[in-house]
Amino acid sequence: MSGSVRRAAVSGEMSRALVLEEFGTLPRLVERPVPEPQPGHTLVRMLASQVAHLDLNVVDGKFGILPELPAVPGTNGAGIVLASDTHPEGSLLRVNGKGLGLRRDGCWADHALVPDAAVIAVPEGTDPALACSFFSPAGTAWAAVHSVAAVQPGERVLVTGAAGAVGSLTVQVAARAGAEVIGVVGRAEKLDHVPVPAKAVLAADMPTEAVGGPVDAVIDTVGGPVLRDALPLVRPRGRVALVGYTAGREFTVDLADFLLADVSLVPVNLMTRGKEVAADAERLLTELTAGELSLPIERYGPDRLPEAVERLRKGTAVGRAVLDLA
Ligand SMILES: NC(=O)c1ccc[n+]([C@@H]2O[C@H](COP(=O)([O-])OP(=O)(O)OC[C@H]3O[C@@H](n4cnc5c(N)ncnc54)[C@H](OP(=O)(O)O)[C@@H]3O)[C@@H](O)[C@H]2O)c1
């Protein structure tokens, strides 16, 4: 498709976008012209876009990489190709990386102009909400279970935030690795959202016999005081894989106790491990689509962004929050 034809396809059209004007506020839903196609870029009609903790950190101005304002947040989206020199028109894709939603406008908009290199094909028929939201939890769960915690069959593994997006997939991946899984949640209403076959336990009950003795590994998606309370539950030479810090960026450790406990505390960083786990994450997408694995998703129209943000911030959201832009 030539550049002039591409322009004709979208010229004059207006498009909704959530535009952030000041860090620490929420983006406003505005009408703006559809972005003009550019060489090296793909124009996407977004169908779904994820609202994740990373995006909220950007909105708050509390991430190491921030856009110049005004800007459209949204680091992950899924949609249909409207115009591209490299990707077939009409194909379903997901977009992520190359500074999307960080250094450049992201996916919280009906249309996004994204670098060709940020476009990844998705099997036709995939739910766009799943397409835009599976990679981070699936890749992180795989990296945490297999690359960092190196879970072995028969081991006892405790997963915190077990009803969250990363936590619930981590529970399922660890169980498939042959582990006996204990899923920890912060509030009683989430006990029922911990995937089977994990034993669901309240964080407040973690230090008691509810966990049923020492564990071989902890995969912690919550951080702060939950990580502090989980550490003593690990057997000597056991492992703790740290994924997130929704409950707090800091905790205090007594170094003498830490040495005596002889437990490894290792970070899981999907940014550095993304390529290494990509094929495994894509395989998990196939299984999610087939219903063999589950990832809970809450869907919101773009006008309901404040509700999605509030539920994520309060920790009441169950699984992924996604903007439905279709
Ligand atoms: N390291 C990496 O590469 C990587 C990749 C992806 C995500 N992450 C991080 O992993 C963490 C989990 O991500 P996610 O997508 O699974 O998030 P999520 O679905 O929102 O789950 C986070 C869980 O944290 C718990 N929580 C405890 N205190 C909280 C608070 N004050 N505010 C919000 N939640 C609180 C909640 O569970 P309870 O109610 O059960 O306590 C909630 O379900 C996030 O910090 C995210 O940034 C890291």
Structure overview:
- With 326 residues, this protein is α/β, with parallel strands linked by helices.
- The chain has 2 domains: 3-134 and 295-324, Medium-chain alcohol dehydrogenases, catalytic domain (Quinone Oxidoreductase, Chain A, domain 1, Alpha-Beta Complex); 136-271, Rossmann fold.
- Helix content is 28%, strand content 27%.
- The protein contains 9 helices and 15 strands.
- It has helices at residues 3-10, 53-59, 128-133, 135-148, 165-176, 224-230, 255-261, 270-289, 305-314; strands at residues 14-19, 28-33, 41-51, 76-83, 92-96, 111-115, 119-121, 156-160, 180-185, 199-202, 215-220, 234-242, 264-267, 297-300, 320-324.
- The strands form 3 sheets. Strands 3, 4, 5, 6, 7, 14 and 15 form a 7-stranded mixed beta sheet that branches. Strands 10-9-8-11-12-13 form a 6-stranded parallel beta sheet, sandwiched between helices.
- Strand 11, helix 6 (224-230) and strand 12 form a beta-alpha-beta unit.
- Helix 4 packs across helix 5 (165-176).
- 46% of the residues are buried.
- The chain binds NADP nicotinamide-adenine-dinucleotide phosphate.
- NADP nicotinamide-adenine-dinucleotide phosphate binds at residues 52-54, 136-137, 140, 161, 163-167, 185-187, 190, 221-222, 243-247, 268-270, 312, 315, 317, 319.
Number of strands: 15
Strand content: 25-35%
Order of helices and strands: HEEEHEEEEHHEHEEEHEHEHEHE
- Total separate domains: 2
Distance between the amino and carboxyl termini: 24 Å
Low-confidence stretches: 1-8
CATH fold description of the largest domain: Quinone Oxidoreductase, Chain A, domain 1
Structural class: alpha/beta
